From TrEMBL, chain A:
GO terms for molecular function: acyltransferase activity. The keyword Metal-binding does not apply. The keyword Transferase applies. This is Glycosyl transferase. Signal peptide: none annotated. It comes from Dyella monticola. The chain crosses the membrane at residues 33-51. InterPro entries: Ac_Trasf (IPR014548), LipA_acyltrans (IPR004960). Keywords: Acyltransferase, Cell inner membrane, Cell membrane, Membrane, Transferase, Transmembrane, Transmembrane helix. One of its GO terms (biological process) is glycolipid biosynthetic process. It comes from the Bacteria. Its main location: membrane. It is found in: Cell inner membrane. One of its GO terms (cellular component) is plasma membrane.
UniProtKB/TrEMBL annotation, chain B:
It comes from the Bacteria. It comes from Dyella monticola. Gene3D superfamilies: ACP-like. SUPFAM superfamilies: ACP-like. PROSITE patterns: CARRIER (PS50075). This is Acyl carrier protein. It holds the Pfam family PP-binding. Residues 1-84 form the Carrier domain.
Length: 326, 89
């Protein structure tokens, strides 16, 4: 990996392409024009993105190369066509996300793959059982949390995000009549935030957080093997789980043969570390999470929507640890 | 060591799972971080959560004061006492 890639823009610098502004604009346009009319426009936008964003093309090519080598599937090796396909899958994904946000993607249309009974526990939280944590990824459709909220039947779901536009998103949700899902902005772990989350969990609320993106100014990261190469993952979700001493489940939603499938997997019965073994414990969990993610990439190889340089093993300069305390 | 200090020392041991440490080992003036007991910022967070739950107090996040309260068991005990008195009034 050369220096140029290492100095690639951070994902947050992309200003959440297809995020708030696009959500608003498209939500409005879909209402006015309908999905069928909007789809060509969106395809054009993504086509422009494909043509103009050389680094994004290279990053997707790198992902496809690593996936092909890791899985030993020569058919997955990148070609100009396969990279383009992945961009188009993103356009498709954006349209689907709009449907999700508008409540058009109903739970009945989604196939649930839940071998360990995560949903049963979710429903138990209606009757006072303590909440749990869901770790989501940017593979497939992470906005499916919205459908999850429906699936949870009034069990409140708090989605922790690094986005600054939380208030606006919440208003958008409110307008859509969704009261069971709430976005909470997290920047650093602090006592007030942890206390709030802990109380929510005691009340039976669930927390969802992305496990595959490292926040810009967060030095708490851990580098593990992902598709055969070192990649940095955030420690935050796992520290949080350990502090809350809660069970952790993985949530991923992939489109397979034109239909969405929600994969729910119990990951940790209770996040706890032995004294002095915290870093090792977290590294172990993150490696296991990365392995799980790799396997899911194979189910839907073109739905990896991290367009920035994902494999950046460079450790950031060590931050003064104590600045995070209290 | 007064009763509250003992209680807090025990809470530290239980919360952080310090198996080979006893209350007697944690003198009220032993620094909790660095050289002393060797806690770090995540331990502090864990401890703060436990204290808030146990004593029903609020610990303001990221204030300089909060950090000072966490230097020793003695400073923690006087902080908890002050918070309780404030609530009682």
């Amino acid at each position: 990996m050369n220096e140029q890639i290492a100095q690639e823009r951070h994902w947050s610098a992309y200003k959440e392409r297809g995020s708030l502004f696009l959500m608003r604009l498209t939500a409005f346009s879909v209402r006015v024009f309908g999905r069928r009319l909007l789809a060509p426009v969106l395809y054009l936008i993504v086509l422009y993105f494909f043509v103009s964003a050389r680094s994004a093309r290279r990053n997707i090519g790198q992902y496809q190369t690593y996936l092909a080598a890791w899985s030993d599937h020569a058919a997955l090796r990148p070609t100009p066509g396969s990279v383009f396909e992945q961009f188009m899958a993103f356009a498709d994904n954006l349209l689907d996300r709009l449907d999700v946000w508008r409540g058009r993607l109903r739970f009945e249309q989604v196939q649930l793959i839940d071998p360990t009974g995560v949903r049963a526990r979710l429903l138990r939280s209606q009757h006072g059982a303590r909440g749990e944590m869901l770790v989501v990824t940017h593979l497939g459709n992470p906005d499916v949390c919205r459908a999850m909220a429906e699936l949870s039947e009034r069990v409140p779901l708090n989605v922790l995000v690094h986005n600054r536009h939380v208030a606006q998103f919440n208003r958008l949700l409110g307008e859509a009549g969704d009261r069971s899902m709430r976005l909470i902005q997290v920047s650093e772990l602090d006592t007030a935030m942890m206390m709030d989350l802990s109380q929510r969990m005691e009340r039976g609320e669930w927390l969802a957080i992305a496990g595959d993106r490292v926040p810009l100014h967060d030095a708490r990261r851990v580098t593990v093997d992902f598709l055969g190469h070192p990649a940095a993952f955030p420690q935050g979700p796992w520290l949080m789980a350990g502090l809350l001493r809660c069970p952790v489940n993985l949530l991923c939603c992939l489109k397979v043969e034109g239909h969405y499938r929600i994969y729910l997997d119990t990951f940790l019965a209770s996040a706890r570390w032995e004294r002095g073994q915290r870093d090792e414990a977290i590294r172990g969990w993150v490696q296991r999470y990365a392995d799980h993610l790799s396997a899911q990439c194979l189910i839907a190889p073109r739905q990896w929507f991290n367009f920035y340089a994902y494999w950046q093993p460079v450790e950031p300069p060590a931050k003064k640890e104590a600045t995070h305390a209290h | 060591m007064n009763a509250l200090q003992q209680e807090i020392a025990q809470l530290i041991i239980d919360t952080l799972n310090l198996e080979d440490v006893t209350v007697a080992d944690i003198s009220p003036d032993l620094p909790l971080f660095g050289e002393g007991l060797g806690l770090d910022s995540v331990d502090a967070l864990e401890l703060a959560l436990a204290l808030q739950k146990r004593y029903d107090i609020r610990i303001a996040s990221d204030s300089k004061d909060a950090r000072q309260h966490f230097t020793t068991v003695a400073s923690l005990a006087s902080f908890v006492q002050a918070q309780r008195d404030a609530c009682a009034n």
